[in-house]
Amino acid sequence: PLSFDELLIQAKAEAAYKAQQKENFQRYCDTAYKYWKNKDYEGFIYYSDFALGTGYSSNSLYYDRGRAYEYLRNYKKAKKEYKKAKRNGYYPAVSALEQCVANEKNWKKMNKK
Known about the structure:
Blueprint (H helix, E strand, L loop, with lengths): L3 H34 L3 H12 L6 H13 L3 H13 L4 H21 L1
């Protein structure tokens, strides 16, 4: 068994790691949204992947990832992201998911011609 001092050191190390990961999440989100502002949705998704890789997340990030995938016409991934946001109670994702399904149907119909 670990001594009290060893447990304290371990707890401090875990706290420092979590703080660093939270900081990384915010930094990656900030970078992702810079790409978003420039309508570079692939860049947004790339950096938001890094943000989510930190173990932190946000419902609005999942929602915006859905929007980005939808802009790129990747409706399957868009719906997946909207569902994540919806599952966590982000209510704008409910109507976005419905609209995404409708947009996908329209896109398929237009491209069959």
